[in-house]
Specification:
Structural class: mainly beta
Bound molecules: zinc ion
Largest sheet: 5 strands, antiparallel
CATH architecture of the largest domain: Beta Barrel
Shape: globular
Number of strands: 8
Radius of gyration: 16 Å
Strand order of the largest sheet: 6-5-4-7-8
């Protein structure tokens, strides 16, 4: 049954390996096979050297909170039921130029509205977890 959440397409040509990784509990980022530049989100060409050769690299899933917001209504119905909830932007430890958006959760299977937004601090260390939503494993973050 559809959840009403706006979810990415796990079969997207560029991003399918990323979503296959999250389903295995791995954070993969695309990297240029010529110059090594990592990029997120995935795209067909390197913005540094324009090569279309690529590879996927597994990262640790550690990072820190770079910024966050607290979502309040009006929101789409599925999100409105959860509000207020946090949305965090995380700087990845191995590649500080890469930032991944997600939600801070208290438990690996915890809801996105469980952490009191007043307790969230910029710079807090976090680690990635993967939560199944319909047929996709969404990256979320827990305090490290
Ligand atoms: Zn390149």
């Amino acid at each position: 049954m559809a959840s009403g959440f706006l979810l990415p397409d796990p079969t997207d040509d560029d991003a399918a390996p990323f979503w296959a990784g999250t389903a295995r509990g791995e954070l993969l980022v695309q990297a240029c096979a010529r110059c090594g530049q990592r990029r997120l989100p995935p795209r067909p060409m390197c913005y540094a050297c324009r090569s279309i050769e690529q590879r996927w690299e597994r990262l640790s899933g550690r990072g820190s909170i770079w910024s966050f917001i607290v979502a309040h209504p009006p929101l789409l119905p599925a999100y409105q039921e959860l509000a207020p909830y946090n949305v965090v932007t995380v700087v990845l430890e191995e590649s500080p130029s890469l930032r991944l958006v997600g939600n801070l959760v208290a438990r690996p299977d915890g809801p996105i509205n469980e952490v009191d937004p007043k307790t969230i601090r910029i710079g807090e260390p976090v680690k990635i977890v993967f939560q199944k939503v319909e047929d996709i494993y969404m990256p979320r973050w827990m305090r490290a």
